[in-house]
Design brief:
The chain is built from six helices and four strands; from the N terminus they run βαβααβαβαα. The chain binds 4-nitrophenyl phosphate.
C-alpha cells in the first residue's frame, strides 16, 4: 500500500481538491486499491469544515466527486505516510518544522513532479479556482506517473 497525504494551509481548498482528484485518477487507472489517500491542514483555522463551496463547485464541474472534513496534521501523519505532498513553499516550511530529520525526504511540493515545478497558488486569496484545479490536476497526474514507474 502506498500512503499519500496532501497538505495545504486550511484543508478546505487545495489539499482536498488534490485528494479527490487523485482518488479519481487512480480509480481511472485501475490502481485505487494500491493507495491510501487523505489530506490535512498545517493550520487549525478550518478544522471540522467541509470543502469550501467554490472549490467543491469547481471539482463537480470537472466530474470529480466526494467531500472531506478539514483536520490538522499530526506527527503520526508524517510517520505513517510515504508521500506528503504540499502545495507551496509556506506549507513546505510548516511541514518540515513538524517532521523528524528522517521523514523530510517524504515531503515534496506537488508540482515538483511536473515539467514546470511551481507552487499551487492559494485560491482562498486569488479567487482563481480553475487555475488551482488545473495546477493540481497536472501535479497529481505527474505524481501518479512517477509513483507507478517503480
Ligand atoms: P487552502 O486555502 O489552504 O487551499 O485550504 C485556505 C483556506 C482557508 C484559509 C487559508 C487558506 N484560512 O485562512 O482560513
Amino acid at each position: 500500500m502506498i500512503h499519500v497525504l496532501f497538505v495545504c494551509l486550511g484543508n478546505i481548498c487545495r489539499s482536498p481538491m488534490a485528494e479527490l482528484i487523485f482518488k479519481k485518477l487512480v480509480q481511472e487507472r485501475g490502481v485505487r486499491d494500491r493507495f491510501s489517500i487523505d489530506s490535512c491542514a498545517t493550520s487549525g483555522y478550518e478544522v471540522g469544515n467541509p470543502v469550501y463551496p467554490p472549490a467543491l463547485r469547481t471539482l463537480r464541474a470537472h466530474g470529480v466527486e466526494g467531500n472531506h472534513t478539514a483536520r490538522r496534521i499530526t506527527p503520526r501523519d508524517l510517520a505513517q505516510n510515504d508521500y506528503v505532498l504540499v502545495m507551496d513553499e509556506e506549507n513546505l516550511r510548516a511541514v518540515n518544522r513538524l517532521a523528524q530529520a528522517n521523514e523530510r525526504g517524504k515531503i515534496r511540493k506537488l508540482c515538483s513532479f511536473t515539467d514546470r515545478p511551481r507552487d499551487v497558488a492559494d485560491p482562498w486569496y486569488t479567487g482563481d479556482f480553475e487555475r488551482a484545479y488545473a495546477d493540481i490536476r497536472e501535479g497529481c497526474a505527474a505524481f501518479l506517473d512517477f509513483v507507478l514507474q517503480d
